[in-house]
Amino acid sequence: MHGSQFEVGDRVSLPPASVALPRHNSRGVRDVRIIAEECPVALVYDGTTVAVVMATPADLTDLALGFSLTEGIIHDSSEVEELTIIPGPDGIELRLWLRRDPGRRLKERRRQLVGPTGCGLCGIDSLRQAVRLLRPVRHSAGLTPQQIGEAIATLTHSQTLNHQTHATHAAGFFTPDNKSMMVREDVGRHNALDKLAGALAADGTFGFGGAVILTSRISVEMVQKTAAIGAGVIVGMSAPTALAVRTAAASGITLVGIARGSEFEIFSHPTRIINDGSPREEA
């Protein structure tokens, strides 16, 4: 959806993404450092709070839309009828009103919720749901080693907030035929990826045309969210977990970890990494 209700919300008065705070350095000298802000953000659907996350108070429209998509609350951004951002003394509420079908699905899901949860597993009521597999990614862009290096360099350069604070994660969407990269940052790695998912949806960009690039480790939730985006390649600067590798393999996703410049390791579906003009063979 490209409606104005997704654009007006972020114009409300919100806390800044970073603040200047006094500190003493190792020599006892008092000066100032720019610190990343974080605050409680509640995702409220049809009047009911589904999750509360600790997040950077920026790009909250993207967070609301992306969380809704990657957690399976909606299938398409058009299923959100209205979105309002409400700042308060204790945090920020993202109030979403859903159309009839997604609202009914969420109500059925809410009947079994066991309580609020932390990053990435909001609304999960069973072990099976925690390791859920989404529809396998069938079609996706391939990358060369050089492009992976370019993607890592571009993401590093684009971390405006992290350059100031040294305290935030970033998620970027890299397309092989485009030098620019859509990037979102947050104190939480799941939030950064959800913000990216929301930004892509609002822009009408389909995930199969590029790769998700992360500054963080690759855990199973990050793979699940990448599958929800529809991207067939996920690249992380840190290592993946074993469950993330198994989930990527089952989801048809190429997982590349420990990516530092032109050096990296491929853990699943290596054929999308094209070397010397030809794809690598499956292990």
From TrEMBL:
Highest taxon above the source species: Bacteria
Function, as annotated: Required for formate dehydrogenase (FDH) activity. Acts as a sulfur carrier protein that transfers sulfur from IscS to the molybdenum cofactor prior to its insertion into FDH.
GO CC annotations, alphabetized: cytoplasm
Catalytic residue positions: C119 (cysteine persulfide intermediate)
HAMAP family named in the record: FdhD
Subcellular location, record wording: Cytoplasm
Gene behind the chain: fdhD
BP GO annotations: Mo-molybdopterin cofactor biosynthetic process
Pfam families: FdhD-NarQ
Full protein name: Sulfur carrier protein FdhD
